[in-house]
Amino acid sequence: MINRAVTLTYFYLLLYIVLSTVVILYNKWVLSTKHYGFPYPITLTMIHMAFSGSVAFILVRVFKVVTPVGMTFKIYVSSVVPISALFASSLWFGNTAYLFISVAFIQMLKSLMPVATFLMAILCGTDKPRCDFFLNMVLVSIGVAISSYGEIHFNLAGTAFQVAGILAEALRLVLTQILLQKKGLTLNPLTSLYYIAPCSFLFLSIPWILLEKPEMNQATTKLNFDFWVFFTNALCALVLNFSVFLVIGRTGALTVRVAGVLKDWILIALSTLIFPDSKLTVLNVTGYGIALSGVVIYNYLKMKDSPPSDTTSEKQKLPTFKERKLERKASDVFDHSKDESGGMSSLLTTVDEEAPLTSSGDFLTFFKPTRRLVFVVKSRIHG
């Protein structure tokens, strides 16, 4: 007889992989001038923020699914505002990269996320230099350099935007730990969207007014804006953010990281089929393999250093529908796939990327839940 719990766990993992892949490819398709033809990444990201913030407001204020945290004006200005600015920047830069470089190459560049996070943590004083970590960072960097050298359609502007997005996300993760964790403030997926999305939207409106609005006004042809395309795109990004938490609550951060690696390979393969201009070379694959080995070792070292209690999350089961409280601790994780979709996978804690409020990333966010991790709905509505 098939174990229902195991089957459900595998279903959640499959859901996460599928959603993350769909969001990233969907964003690329929408932004590409060779496909849907809406080359306005800031506008697309603002749509994601507006949609996610609206859904969060309705669930928190109208349906009262969760109770807002004790957010004061001082904490909001000193912590949430700078974190929102960095989050908006990471999504803006990450989505802009789709205009210049392929999805496959973007996924390879995302391997630099642990490098950026480690360096930012050292600069901000939240981590100490370690020889084993440093050697892994060198290995990852060499792998990415080889992949870049082997990229047929290498574009300096696209690479610069993607790297800038990675640096902004890394700094956001570190500042989240400094500004929020030390103040004892924890935000669940819903309250994260509630507080961060509107502020990120406002920050994005500044570059939008200066850069994209004039260009959109001067467009000689009518903008290709299909309501259902943008609605489904934003919906996929939102659901992806929640799916990450659903998977972590069922399994654990390590399992999601492993699934993220599998997803990256699937995404790279699919992108070469869907977008003909995306070509892989032997150097691409070799370099990415080297970088990935460094990321795997990094994950192993981080998990090895984690407190024993964190490993129990791998055996966690989902809470019942009636359990209404989410209590979790932001942990030391990196964003491996900043989903670039503007998905907000756990905006305020640790994250992966893949699923940016998307990510990101593959705005995907990783955190290690405590034993009392509970969310409002059984499906736990995540880059």
From TrEMBL:
Keywords: Membrane, Transmembrane, Transmembrane helix. Residues 11-299 form the Sugar phosphate transporter domain. Pfam families: TPT. The keyword Membrane applies. It is a multi-pass membrane protein. The chain crosses the membrane at residues 7-26, 38-63, 75-93, 99-121, 133-150, 156-180, 192-211, 227-247, 254-275, 281-301. The keyword Lipoprotein does not apply. It is found in: Membrane. InterPro entries: Sugar_P_trans_dom, TPT_transporter. Its main location: membrane. PANTHER family: SOLUTE CARRIER FAMILY 35 (PTHR11132). This is Sugar phosphate transporter domain-containing protein. The lineage of its organism: Eukaryota, Viridiplantae, Streptophyta, Embryophyta, Bryophyta.
